[in-house]
Design a protein that fits this description.
It is built from ten helices and 22 strands. It has helices at 2-10, 16-28, 33-36, 243-250, 256-260, 318-334, 343-347, 359-363, 370-379, 384-398; strands at 49-53, 60-65, 70-80, 83-95, 106-114, 120-128, 132-138, 141-146, 149-154, 161-166, 173-179, 182-187, 192-198, 203-209, 216-221, 226-231, 235-240, 270-271, 273-279, 284-290, 299-304, 309-312. Helix 1 (2-10) runs antiparallel to helix 2. It is globular, with a radius of gyration of 27 Å. It starts with a helix and ends with a helix.
């Protein structure tokens, strides 16, 4: 469209008719997508669709196109307590979305009913004031992050019904994780906030948060007190609530203490602790706790913007931990990076590296020359084949 307009503007008066014909022919030409690529939208222009796929065959079962300039940002499969036999798919969309500065003319939560034939039936559309950037099922209702507002919605006949709201998230909600009665909300700039829903008072209360700013991209709950998260600068951290904080919150039946006991700058009074911190070097887009082999231990798998698939695995014995810690220490000294940068400095680019051993560095042991391998193995009171076997064992225990 822009090129056609430029052709018309560049033409003189005597060439105007010819330029109009050329521009029209240019616009009507059907260019093959496999040669010229997909058409690029202009600024502020969006197009989205909802596709139902068969994960085994990859076949498309249903495709629903959204309206012009309506972009989908979140999706959730859920059940509601007052309609327990039915499954619903909620899709959060924004109209005329502008990324910088962040703005949209309106937002909607589209509600679809999922049939037994895996088809989506549109029920209604609920208007909201901002981008519905995260949706999660919670105790027979849904938690929706609408901009910086956290809301609980229930199903209604003509739209979703708002039941509760919290306005104390600083910027924009990007992730919502739940476990039991606990809710962990990730802010786009201010890390994680631990919340509790008090059903008797119908309140969402922030009782703890992180003391460091993080530009959160994704999160994964590890247990009732621990969450793993990643930010857009390539850091992966695990954050845990201290045991006294957990007990203190659970023993506060009214919730008034958590509501009024505020820390500095109106933040939560209790702070979470950092268990591990590690700089991957690429923007992490997803985190998932999985078991990759039958009967194996759980591990934390991450994927990055560049296409990397990586894994964080827990040590099951102090002996293994001590062995790999010493191996990493010797590898840092004997096998420094090609560019000369200090390994510890790189892995601590934004936050100090803590309680994580770099498996990529340890794996380079097999690519070193034999003299250095023997030297490091002697320091570890082993021979090179035993070190290689140890590296292989930890791979096969979790992955392959």
């Amino acid at each position: 469209m822009q090129m056609a307009e430029e052709m018309k503007e560049a033409a003189g008066d005597d060439e105007k008719e010819l330029a109009d014909e050329m521009a029209q022919a240019f616009l009507n030409e059907d260019l093959p997508e496999n040669v010229f690529g997909s058409a690029k939208a202009g600024p502020g222009m969006w197009a989205s669709l909802i596709r139902v796929l068969n994960p085994v065959t990859g076949d498309t079962l249903q495709k629903l196109s959204l309206e012009q300039n309506e972009a989908a940002f979140s999706i959730c499969l859920c059940k509601f307590a007052n309609r327990p036999e039915e499954q619903f798919v909620l899709v959060g969309t924004a109209v005329d979305m502008q990324l910088n500065p962040r703005h949209c003319s309106s937002g909607f939560i589209r509600t679809y009913k999922l049939s037994s034939e895996h088809q989506l039936e549109f029920l209604h559309k609920t208007p909201v004031e901002d981008i519905p950037s995260a949706i999660t099922a919670y105790q027979g209702r849904v938690l929706v992050g609408v901009g910086k507002l956290l809301r609980i919605y229930d199903i209604g006949k003509k739209k979703l019904l708002r039941k509760c709201e919290n306005k104390h998230i600083p910027n924009l909600i990007v992730t919502i994780q739940t476990i039991g009665h606990r809710i962990i909300v990730g802010d786009v700039q201010e890390s994680f906030h631990f919340m509790r829903y008090k059903r008797e008072e119908n309140q969402l209360i922030i009782f703890a948060d992180d003391s460091y700013p993080r530009w959160t991209t994704c999160a994964c709950v590890l247990d009732y007190d621990t969450i793993a998260g990643a930010d857009k600068f390539g850091n992966i951290v695990t954050i845990r609530l201290p045991q006294d904080v957990s007990d203190e919150v659970d023993e506060d039946p009214t919730g008034n203490r958590s509501l009024w006991d505020r820390g500095w700058c109106n933040a939560a009074a209790q702070k979470a602790e950092i268990c591990t911190s590690f700089h991957v070097g690429e923007t992490v887009l997803s985190l998932q706790k999985v078991t990759l082999i039958p009967g194996g231990s759980e591990s934390l798998v991450y994927t990055t913007l560049s296409g990397t698939i990586g894994m964080l695995v827990p040590f099951t014995s102090h002996e293994d931990h001590d062995f790999f810690q010493h191996l990493e220490m010797h590898m840092r000294a004997e096998h420094p990076p090609l560019c000369g940068r200090d390994h510890m400095s790189y892995r601590s680019s934004y936050f100090p590296m803590k309680n994580v051993i770099d498996g990529d560095l340890c794996e380079q042991f097999n690519s070193m020359d034999l003299v250095k391998q023997k030297s490091i193995a002697e320091e570890l009171d082993r021979n090179p084949s035993e070190v290689s076997k140890k590296l292989e064992d930890i791979r096969t225990r979790f992955a392959f």
